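TOPIC: backbone geometry
CONTENTS: sequence, structure tokens:
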Amino acid sequence: MTRRWAMAVCGLVLCSMTASGADADKTTKQNKAAPLRLQTRLRVPVEKGSSLFRTVNRKVEWSPKQTAIIVCDMWDLHHCLNATRRGGELTPRMNQVLTAARKQGVTIIHAPSSCMKPYEKHPARLHAQNTPRSENLPKDIGSWCYVIPEEKKGDYPIDQSDGGEDDDAFEHRQWAARLTAMGKNPRAPWTKQTDGLTILDNDFISDNGEEIWSIMETRGIENVVLLGVHTNMCVLGRPFGLRQMAQNGKNVVLMRDMTDTMYNPAMKPFVSHFTGTDLIVEHIEKHVCPTITSVGLLGGKPFRFQNDKRPHLVIVTAEREYRTNETLPPFALAELGRDFKVSHVYADPKDRNNLPGIEILDEADIALISVRRRVLPQAQMDVIRRFVESGKPIVGIRTASHALSLGDKPVPEGYAAWNEFDANVIGGNYTGHHGAGPKVTITAADGAAAHAILKGVDPSSFVGNGSLYRSKPLRESTQHLLTGTVEGHEAEPIAWTNIRTDGGRTFYTSLGHIDDFKQPAFRRLLSNAVYWAAGLEVPSTIPTVKVSETATK
């Protein structure tokens, strides 16, 4: 992050700059305008040197006069039919964003690359061309930027080496033929910006990095919002893109709900197109700049593509014994990334009873809990209670049966426990565990073999690697699915469902040892459980991707 961004995220309101001449009266009015109040999102390591990142939301206030929006490559047509469709979906909301921003005094720069000819005589194009060239042009500001040093700290999350087209092959051939019949180049059919975005005479039109930098310097622009397509290519790499703005000191953000990617789900990490976009946004928030949404200008809810039907799964991880902070993220990416939007919440390593970012549960459709013996500030506990009481589904593994209780230990002042979480939400009766020793033999419970959660699961093919939990008796509202046995002890239920009094679905398994995740049967069990809890049909097959293959440099 740049020094300027460090100032911005501390909530400083950037001072307005004074214009001269005929613009003075207009500038004075703009200076009196209310600041832009935006909520930025970025990701920071949970602790120094960690490969895990937590989400941080911060409010900033920006002077509209010192802010520009750059509309990147919102072309009229694209060689990828699905990209053309998604661009059409984005356009109406994006035009509302531009209209709202203009009214507040924000500079609008339209940047449809390689499409300047139709605008040769447009006042907005002349406006850009007539801007004096800045004397402080950064080195290479006129060139594409493929990477900045900060990005080298992490792996690039998707493989876009095939160009990222996600069209059906037959439809793509038809689309190419249609473009040819229209007299367009089927590989580069764009000729202008989409007509769905209004261009006013006092806007700017340019695809030239030096021109755009000069526009911003002349107008005292310190804050830049990038939106448009495609984030993993054009929005990141153009001379006026995120990388150039970030490395040259602008307070730049991506408007993450007003963008798309070029990503083909047939390529690594083999997730849905929309998850591919999420992964690029995460990469940007970690290594390039923060993001915002259109809600900051328009209110309401963030834009979502009509074909993005993914339930939002939030995985809450706060335990040290079984290292689920290591196993759950790659598991979720490999086996849930096709059909779920996945977010993660991690415990504060400096304060075990703090779950920063847990508020994201308010946006979630389903939660996966891997927490052990934590109590929380009341406001954080209220978030979890609110989620459960709304009837939303819960999947719990291993220590979730004693997630929010300290047992017989007193609860520190200012913190809240939920001792009944096991009984009322999980549906179990955790009373400890047998000692470490023999592996746990796993069998299907009587009458459970046909349950959807056991689809494709052969219990005899895997064993439990952790100590056997004592969980009897289960609540009447449960359905027992799997039984675990160790020599010399009574059998115990180790997987079951619970239909709660609030109507919500819960699945729980006392499995979840780090070595359990190495077994396909356990991974399939947990995948099935997430689908079942979310109310989705359990797939006949869930392709498993090796953990080492879930990221591409």
